[in-house]
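Customer escalation, tier 2.

The customer says the design service returned an amino acid string that "doesn't look like it belongs to this structure." They asked us to rerun it and document both sides in this ticket. The original structure tokens are below, unchanged.
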């Protein structure tokens, strides 16, 4: 049972913009179709030929390149996803005006500033005028301003765990009574400097993102935004819900600037803390959405963590390898995983994973690939790990108490 003093936090709306399309329905349909592939990055691939990315298509939904003075690329993604989530939850103008906004991002709007003051940015026309200065991590404030959401407005930026930490912040705001409604999400726009840097580190796969595959050679980044409407029990009353955030936990082990702690002790502790807050045990987990970046060390360490956490159930608990579909969306990764968990709980199934050429024998996780798998327990474990040793785990569960 969950601790009786832990207030419920419900998810009443979702929105998503990804390489699979500009809505949450397109996201779910794309996950079930498993047809996405990364593509060359304009202005970069001719200089760094091994860099690909899972890019949002220019389909006229408001996420395409915009004129000078418009919100940056990541903020435009976030606004599109936030508006969809608001409509999905059926929020009125008054509810939005009192809502908090918490957005996680690793890169922020740096892509639009890469040419320097007065330049043309990364093709999106958002570079500041000569002599001006604008913050890189302005996505949350832009969303709050555009939507007239006047509650707490918080930007979180700690690399690839950013939207996981943001989710914990959002849950705390609700549980402390500081907000009844929070627009929680993560957003990233493709930025050339981080992509080239990963290539320089030898951590970019030149073909596709293929976590747990024996032939994996690194990660492949993606862009987009995922937003969830989180609400207290009072605010969610009378609404259809996707489910509840049952437990969250995070830590920073600071083992190394880039590499995970090979022992994974902090990762296990964080996951156990999230399970304890959720009042769930290993046998209650119906699916795991792993961090699963496709880098050799990360995937092996995460398997070791799951084996320690789930014990004999590790071989029988299905994983859904999300980054194989949309790439590594950096600071937005945990938010996309949370949207995936909400959709799996609502539909009662786990989409088939993309087919592996050959599974790494050092990562004998269960990745169902032959069709949808029934979600036998309506509880999904989500992991997000980042440079610097930032670790996050969430347990998402069904709507009923």
């Amino acid at each position: 049972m969950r601790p009786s003093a832990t207030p419920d936090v419900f998810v009443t709306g979702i929105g998503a913009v990804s390489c699979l399309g500009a809505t949450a329905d397109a996201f779910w349909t794309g996950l079930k179709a498993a047809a996405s592939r990364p593509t060359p990055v304009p202005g970069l691939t001719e200089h760094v030929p091994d860099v690909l990315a899972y890019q949002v298509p220019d389909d006229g939904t408001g996420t395409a390149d915009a004129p000078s003075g418009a919100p940056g690329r990541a903020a435009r993604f976030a606004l599109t996803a936030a508006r969809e989530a608001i409509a999905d939850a059926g929020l009125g103008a008054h509810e939005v005006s009192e809502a908090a906004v918490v957005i996680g991002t690793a890169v922020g709007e740096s892509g639009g500033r890469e040419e320097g003051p007065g330049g043309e940015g990364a093709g999106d026309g958002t570079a500041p005028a000569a002599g001006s200065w604008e913050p890189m991590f302005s996505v949350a404030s832009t969303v709050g301003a555009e939507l007239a959401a006047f509650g707490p407005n918080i930007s979180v930026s700690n690399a690839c765990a950013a939207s996981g930490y943001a989710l914990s912040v959002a849950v705390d705001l609700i549980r402390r009574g500081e907000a009844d409604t929070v627009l929680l999400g993560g957003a990233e726009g493709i930025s050339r400097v981080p992509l080239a840097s990963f290539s320089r580190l030898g951590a970019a796969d030149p073909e596709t993102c293929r976590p747990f595959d024996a032939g994996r050679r690194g990660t492949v980044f993606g862009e987009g935004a995922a937003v969830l409407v989180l609400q207290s029990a009072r605010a969610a009353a009378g609404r259809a819900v996707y489910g509840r955030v049952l437990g969250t936990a995070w830590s920073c082990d600071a083992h190394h600037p880039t590499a995970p702690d090979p022992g994974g002790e902090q990762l296990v502790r964080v996951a156990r803390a999230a399970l304890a807050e959720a009042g769930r045990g290993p046998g209650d987990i119906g699916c795991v959405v792993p961090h699963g970046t496709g880098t050799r060390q990360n995937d092996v360490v995460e398997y070791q963590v799951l084996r320690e956490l789930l014990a004999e159930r590790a071989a029988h608990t299905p994983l859904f390898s999300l980054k194989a579909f949309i790439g590594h969306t950096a600071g937005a990764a945990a938010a996309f995983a949370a949207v995936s968990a909400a959709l799996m709980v609502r539909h009662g199934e786990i989409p088939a994973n993309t087919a592996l050429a050959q599974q790494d024998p050092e990562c004998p996780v269960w990745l169902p690939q032959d069709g949808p798998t029934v979600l036998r327990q309506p509880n999904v474990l989500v992991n997000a790990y980042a440079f610097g040793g930032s670790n996050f785990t969430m347990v998402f569960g069904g709507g009923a108490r």
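Tier 2 assessment: The sequence is consistent with the input. The CA atoms of residues 134 and 199 lie 28 Å apart. The chain is about 30% helix and 20% strand. Sent an explanation to the customer and offered a walkthrough call.
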